[in-house]
Amino acid sequence: MKELTINISKEFSKYIGGREKRLGKFSGEDFREKFLEENFENYDRINIELDGTLGYPLDFLDETFGTMARRYGKEKFWERVAFISANTYVSDKIAYIVNHSKQEDLP
Description:
This protein is of the alpha/beta class.
């Protein structure tokens, strides 16, 4: 099994931004493009370490993880992605976003 672990605070930023790149640095769109989209099909499992940041805006979480769930389906998302954190506060928010996402119809 080919695995990748991404520590957001060390490899991306401790200061998390909003949804889109045009709105500022360290956006959910930027993280999704640089870390998830590039690796989603190349790894069997992507472990994401959530600790060490100064919080996560909901629009960042939705753009990053909700978008992936809508594109690939929530079942495939959960097969590939796991979260590592000292508490479940942020991972519970992500689970809610992903589990309430509807897969897009791709052409």
